[in-house]
Amino acid sequence: MWSYYTGFLNLYIRPTTAKEAKEKGCTKYCTGKPCKHGHVYFRQASTHECFICSRARCARYEKANKETLRRKRAEYRDTNRTAINERQRAERRKNGCSSQSRYKAKNMHKYAAWAAKRRAAKLERTPPWVDWEKIDEIFSIAETRTLETDVKHEVDHVIPLQGKLVSGLHVHTNLQVITKKANNEKINKFDPMTFEC
Predict the structure, then answer these.
(1) Within 10 Å of residue 31's Cβ, how many Cβ atoms?
(2) Which residues sit opposite 43 in a β-bridge?
(3) What is the pLDDT of residues 151-183, one digit of tens each?
(4) Could you give the CA distance from residue 52 to residue 77 in angstroms, rounded to a whole number?
(5) Could you state, in order of their start, the residue ranges of all structural domains in the chain?
(6) What tens-digit pLDDT sequence spans the chain (197 residues)?
(7) What are the residues facing 153 on neighbouring strands?
(8) How many Cα atoms sit within 13 Å of 183 on the Cβ side?
(9) For residues 176 and 156, is the Cβ–Cβ distance under 8 A?
(10) Nearest Cα to Cα of residue 137 among 170, 182, 172, 161
């Protein structure tokens, strides 16, 4: 109960007008009175809009303009790829680990299930006549390229082990060395029209 009341108390120890908020350098204020939609919550000092109303308006806009926003975000990512990557690296250095690592730490059971499924799929698609020496050689090439180019390289299955159209074998003739970025983009996609034997 204490935290419930503390939450409401915070509404009243904030500035009560937009003018007071600007004077104190705050971005929000609370009048203690409901907005036109009945929310007793913080308001933005710049627009006087209630935060709950603002979130609802943004959600409506997002829903109505889903494709346009998706296209604009993709364009922004393509034109600002270097800046985005640099910002994410700085964030990781500051926090000590990436959001992906934090997610993995919280959801180890999901990763364990995925790894077990992946191992089972690999075993099912590894024939008895597989040449392990050639497979080791391909993994060695990936490691060498990573060291030489300073760009992470990985071993990818040309025809994915768990593809939607077709599933390949875990053999050296179905392996290729590509960059980690290309491998992440490919995932388990396979286009038979562009496949060369």
Answers:
(1) 19
(2) 29, 50
(3) 889 888 888 887 777 888 888 898 899 998 888
(4) 29
(5) 2-64, 87-124, 129-197
(6) 334 444 444 444 678 888 888 888 888 888 888 888 888 888 888 888 998 899 899 999 999 999 999 999 999 999 998 998 888 888 777 766 666 777 777 888 887 777 777 777 777 888 888 888 898 898 889 888 988 888 889 888 888 887 777 888 888 898 899 998 888 888 777 766 665 65
(7) 179
(8) 16
(9) yes
(10) 172
User: Which residues 6+ apart lie within 8 Å of 111 measured at CB?
Assistant: 104
Q: Is the pTM of this model over 0.70?
A: no
CA atoms of 191 and 2, how far apart (whole Å): 59
Alpha-carbon torsion 70, 71, 76, 82, what sign?
positive
